[in-house]
């Protein structure tokens, strides 16, 4: 099967440091190639892949200080995909709804994975207009605000099984990884660590638009002697950071679409304590890979319990539910249904 993967240009595929969507696109692309598919990846030129790379710009937009207009390369991306669309059996978009007016008119087999939150008011009108566009959710919770969307499947993210090493003997600290932003709530992680009197290591990026929030709400918290801010880390350091943690704190305060960091921790055998938002109850197996909570008090108690969970069972549950192989298999089933005009799609990954 000839498959096009259309990635955002903000980060490379895979990202050099932080990046969720582009990381998933990379894992999916490489697994499809490994399975024998003929894949073309439309992405930034600094991407690394065994697929055919169609480079749209020289490097990821976030890392290009000379890029003043991020929309311009994206317009070029859409034109490049349109020009080559007839070469593929199916075109898989990962750029939200930007391509909808174009791909509706191309007359090609296509689908779009929606990677972000779907509860914003403006999206209602978009999906009223484009209710015919086949889309895929990354959790069932993510779908709830858009009942009118044409969801043809739900595919949970997956990671290569050899990406992270199982770590049976952690050190004595709690971990937080992600972004310093209001919805990720690193302040809650600090509060939980204080309640337990444990060290908290924070690996997180601070985007330009979150700088004011960081200065106002978070910088003072990082002065606590229990807190170690290690900055933004890349793939080479993430395994050790998560694997050596006693527990990952995921205290989000938004309708989390999936939560990639949770399965990255599980891959290392590290349990997760997360606030009950969005996809969290779908991704976590209560009492096996961690706990869902609703308050800081419950989070502190759950973290203490989580540190006694069997780390090997945590890893085993990750292997069963969240492998890249399973993710690629689910998408191949969807591609087949689209190519053959069978409609429908796969159920939620088990």
Reading the helices and strands in chain order gives EHEEHEHEHEHEEHEHEHEHEHEHHH
What is the name of the CATH class of the largest domain? Alpha Beta
CATH third-level topology of the largest domain:
Rossmann fold
The N- and C-terminal alpha carbons lie at a distance of: 25 Å
Q: Strands of the biggest beta sheet: in what spatial order?
A: 3-2-1-4-5-6-7
* Cα gyration radius (Å): 20 Å
Q: So how many helices?
A: 13
Number of strands: 13
CATH superfamily of the largest domain: Glycogen Phosphorylase B
Give me the oligomer status: single chain
Given as residue ranges, the uncertain stretches (5+ residues, pLDDT < 50) are 343-348
Number of separate domains: 2
* Major sheet: 7 strands, parallel
Global mean pLDDT: 94
What is the level-2 CATH architecture name of the largest domain? 3-Layer(aba) Sandwich
Q: What is the share of helical residues?
A: 25-40%
Label the overall shape. Answer: globular
Classify the beta-strand content into a percent band.
15-25%
By secondary-structure content and strand pairing, the structural class works out as alpha/beta
Task: Please name the defining characteristics of this protein.
13 helices, Rossmann fold, alpha/beta, 6-stranded parallel β-sheet, 350 residues, Glyco_trans_1, Glyco_trans_4-like_N, Glycosyltransferase family 4 protein
